[in-house]
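Predict the structure of CAAX amino terminal protease self-immunity.
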Amino acid sequence: MPNAPMRYTLEDPATLAIALAAEGGLAVLGLGLCWVLGMPPPQVLPANGSLGASLGWGAAATLPLLAMFWRLQRCVWRPIARLRRQARWMVRSLLGDARWPTVATVALSAGLGEEILFRGALQPALGLWLGTWAGVAGAAILFGMVHPMSVAYFVVATLCGLYLGVVTEATGELLPAIVAHAGYDFVALLALRKPDQTGRRPGQEELLYSDR
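Done. Here is the predicted structure for CAAX amino terminal protease self-immunity.
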């Protein structure tokens, strides 16, 4: 009798540890890049400003991202509808039975690791060579390239990267982008892992071939 396929879930400590290590590796990569280029390391906490104000800006910056997410959930354009099915299948597979602290941990690690690398290291590095706004755009494109689920996802991730880059430049701090990224991921992951109206999790074959 063939063995059942192994199912990975982030409630499994080993799988969660791998996911957190991957996101932490992005932060280490960002710090290493700054060291190689002779740049100061990304400063997560505000140097001179108020921590409360930075957290407040981050919370406010989350709202446009959530508005975009809400709109994408209702978009009927086929590439976006397909992306929505792909994202739901992936999130439900990994986080379908996860408790909210696990979801929060994953979201926070993504916000920290990805923002330290892309907005904390790559954006200023590219900005030194190409100019501030070209650096914002370049880091956003690279951010999109590491989200290669589909062309639609690349475009959406690049737009999110542009937005987070603008937030970083506008506030002069990295923490608001981290908070916005983590807050968006937390809400989006909770929303995407919810079962559909039938209460079932979509299978991969349905994900790949359904065009409804």
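The helical segments are 13-37, 51-72, 78-95, 100-130, 132-145, 151-171, 175-192, 204-209.
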